[in-house]
Design a protein that fits this description.
There is one protein chain. This protein folds into two domains: 2-139, no CATH class; 163-411, no CATH class. Helix 1 (2-15) runs parallel beside helix 4 (64-81). The two termini are 35 Å apart. The protein has nine helices and 13 strands. A hairpin with a 3-residue loop joins strand 7 and strand 8 (239-244). It has 415 residues and is of the alpha+beta class.
């Protein structure tokens, strides 16, 4: 935050104003207007903002090399904002570690500057081999800026969250009773109050043998839908799926998943083979009609190929990124500007609203699958525990993809 604070101080001193939006990237445009040195300072600020998104919403620790680079950029910005201020010591983590101290202070500022904006103090902390950098910024003729904290997955999502479809699936060892008419009827009776509309969904299964792929007899899965046609439960001989187009909170979805799991417990399922969670987001914003207009709302790292289009309209662009979250947890993230829709408005489940036009796709598909032959025991508490292990990183991947301006947009109730 020192680089952001120094940039604001420089703008206040040289231009008499600073960027007041929640998106810190707006400040780079103002910094570029400062003569001399504005363009170089703006470049340093952009690099720091990219690292800020990584540390705030990323899944991985920042390495020592990135930290040293960040300190150099912050030092340059501090000097740019207040030439009389001491620069940050890029060797601070090493000095702190060698001294056995948890806190190393290059130079705490005790004077109150005349500028409307100022850096008050800087601190570098080192603990157990990892380095944490903390800065405190005070604006003296107003109230301190409150940091924007990402939503907790357990809380309600943004009032105008862009999520259009959520799916949860658990695959388990074959349960023959769930493929019989009597078995499906028993499950329906347990869930009919919540999901009174029942249907059958034909599933084609393919067996791989010496002669290659051979289609096997099709199976009929039981599909149950609520009265509003916004949530469904699908039961097959070796899988259970809960889908919804109205996502109110993680806890609400957990309650629906738990209810479905309890309904199939009498089938005698013993092992869990795979658990998946998917969030499909269609991010739309007023006035955004081209790929190059997403820079204020979407992390620059996700806009690479779309920038090539310039002022042209992008009809479709999708990049797929495979991630290893843990040894047994993987994620597939699909993203890019598109036109039309990602979730079919004519599908089995109804969408709260019908939206067309330009949007940015952010499809986060995260799943758990054991790396060896050891399977998870099929029990509601085990499945829900794994759901929470998937929910947290999927939430962080979403937060990492958007900017503060997007968060402001999602916080606003849309009629």
């Amino acid at each position: 935050m020192a680089g952001i604070a120094a940039s604001d101080a420089a703008c206040c001193t040289a231009l008499g104003r600073r960027a007041r939006g929640q998106d810190h990237r707006q400040a780079t445009e103002l910094v570029e207007q400062i003569v001399p040195g504005g363009k170089r300072a703006a470049s340093s600020l952009r690099r720091l903002l990219n690292l800020k998104d990584e540390t705030h919403y990323g899944l991985f620790d920042v390495g020592g090399r990135d930290l040293q680079a960040a300190l150099r950029q912050a030092s340059a910005l501090v000097k740019f904002g207040r030439p009389d201020q001491a620069t940050l010591d890029v060797n601070a983590p090493r000095k702190a570690a060698s001294a056995g101290s948890d806190v190393y202070s290059p130079r705490p500022a005790t004077d109150v500057p005349r500028s409307r904006c100022a850096i008050r103090s800087t601190r570098v902390l080192s603990r157990t081999g990892s380095v944490i950098v903390r800065f405190r910024f005070v604006r003296y003729n107003g109230h301190p800026r409150k940091p924007v904290m990402p939503h907790s997955p357990a809380q309600n999502p943004y009032p105008s969250a862009p999520v259009r479809f959520v799916a949860f699936e658990v695959q388990f060892g074959l349960a023959p009773s769930l493929s019989t008419q009597d078995g499906r009827a028993a499950v329906y009776e347990r869930l009919r109050d919540a999901y009174p509309i029942a249907d059958a969904q034909t599933t084609l299964r393919v067996a791989i043998g010496p002669q290659g792929a051979m289609p096997s007899p099709a199976g009929a899965d039981l599909v149950m839908t609520n009265r509003e046609h916004t949530r469904s439960v699908t039961i097959g001989a070796n899988a259970l799926t809960v889908q919804t187009t109205v996502f109110s909170s993680s806890e609400d979805l957990v309650a629906a998943i738990t209810e479905a799991l309890r309904a199939v417990e009498p089938a005698g399922i013993t092992t869990t083979r795979r658990i998946g969670l998917r969030f499909v987001n269609e991010i739309r914003a007023p006035g955004v009609e081209r790929a190059d207009q997403w820079t204020a709302l979407i992390n620059d790292d996700l806009l690479g190929p779309a920038r090539y289009a310039g002022n042209y309209i992008v009809d479709g662009s999708e990049t797929t990124l495979g991630l290893r979250i843990e040894d047994e947890i993987r994620a597939i993230v699909r993203f890019g500007p598109n036109t039309g829709f990602a979730v079919d408005p004519n599908g089995r489940l109804r969408l709260p609203s019908s939206e067309q036009g330009h949007f940015f796709l952010l499809d986060i598909d995260i799943f758990w699958q054991p790396t060896d032959d050891a399977f998870l025991s099929f029990a509601a508490e085990n499945v829900i525990g794994t759901y929470r292990r998937l929910d947290e990183p999927s939430h962080r991947l979403f937060e990492r993809a958007i900017t503060d301006r997007a968060r402001d947009l999602f916080q606003t109730e849309h009629s």
